[in-house]
Amino acid sequence: MGDAWTRDDASTSDALTGEVVGAPVPDGADDYRPVALVDLLDRVLARGVVVSGELALSIADVDLVYVSLRALLSSVRAAAGGPEAPR
Amino acid sequence: MSEEPVLWLHAVTPGPDAGRLAGITGVGGGPVRPVAADGLVAVVAPVAPTEYGEVALRRNLEDLTWLERVAREHHRVADVLARLGPVVPARLATVYRDEGGLREALAQRRDDFRAAFDRVAGRVEWGVKAYAVPGAGAAASAPAASGGAGGAGTAYLLRRRAQLAATEAAGRAAARAAQATHEALARHARAARRHAPQDRGLSGVPEQMLLNGAYLVDADGGTDFANLVEALAGRYPAIRLELTGPWPPYSFADIDDGGRHDG
């Protein structure tokens, strides 16, 4: 699973560096453009509307998830003998 | 296994274009469907409680592969909806037991949603990240120590001290440049937000991130915004800028605080 993460980050962040992407195309999802997962998580985990009610679950505590991700990532890095884990 | 599906909330729209949802695939791989409530249309995907119920979610959110799939499925729907009209994307993993509960929750916040639609209508979100450029400005201010009194040890210490001072100065200059960049972009945008800088381990970028900004911009203003980013990149060599987007207005979808400027 660390593989998917790394590959996604490396390719998309390179592709997006300094690049100006076009305006949204009116119709269809066919031109769906991949985005860097880390940028996406910033938005869908930390932002977006939360409407309380008969909620089964909502990620109210985003930090918890990020902590888990960091721990997961560190363990992946360690297992792979990669560069030092993030602070 | 015979449990009723629960409802994954993708986004809320003003509707009533429910017909335009045809063919949109939601989280879990099935078609999304509208749930209308009090002039609002929630776009939901029915999902299995065995995978998306509370207990399962807590476990699955720890699984990076699962999280990535779901985040991308969630994003895809918001991305498509944002092209059709105003949309307020839901936070990931907002799940309801049934339509009744969802309708009730929506009705209570109807006016807040209306305000949010007004804020995001015809606008898109752009992301701008700034990284410190390693060594920028440091070379000029780290001269070799002059051969004065004192031995090699003293010379080393002086040189080392000068290097550290230069590094600190470069860091301060980069931080100032990132702040000025954010302020310039925020002035240009309808609204601005700063996300926490991304962890280097998660971003995969070795340089320190100084700005992780989101900017709400008129949909037809993307070129102007990109030009401004380019101009700022030229003005501040101490930082490297990265532009992402256009995004659905995730960072401006909070219905609680009016999406105010906060930078």
Tell me what the structure shows.
The complex is a heterodimer of chains A (87) and B (263). Chain A is mainly alpha-helical. Chain A is 51% helix and 3% strand. Chain A is built from three helices and one strand; from the N terminus they run ααβα. Chain A starts with a helix and ends in a 7-residue tail after the last helix. Chain B is of the alpha+beta class. Chain B has eight helices and nine strands. The longest helix of chain B has 37 residues, at 152-188. The relative contact order of chain B is 0.15. The model of chain B is unreliable at 257-263 (pLDDT under 50). Classes of the chains: A mainly alpha (87), B alpha+beta (263). Chains A and B meet through helix 1, helix 2, strand 1 and helix 3 of A and strand 1, helix 2, helix 3, strand 4 and strand 5 of B.
Question: Strand count, sense and closure of the main sheet of chain B?
Answer: 5 strands, antiparallel
The average pLDDT value of chain A, as a whole number, equals 49
* Helix/sheet category of chain B: alpha+beta
Order of helices and strands of chain A: HHEH
Total number of strands of chain A: 1
Strand content of chain A: under 5%
Proportion of β residues of chain B?
15-25%
Shape of chain A: flat
Q: Kindly provide the radius of gyration of chain A, computed on alpha-carbon positions and rounded to a whole number of angstroms.
A: 17 Å
Mean of pLDDT of chain B: 87
Termini gap of chain A: 21 Å
Q: Largest sheet of chain A, if any?
A: none
Oligomer: heterodimer
Instruction: Compute the CA-based radius of gyration of chain B.
Output: 24 Å
What is the tally of helical segments of chain B? 8
Question: SSE string of chain B, helix = H, strand = E?
Answer: EEEHHHEEHHEHEHEHE
Largest interface: A-B, 59 and 82 residues
Shape of chain B: elongated
Number of strands of chain B: 9
The total of helices of chain A stands at 3
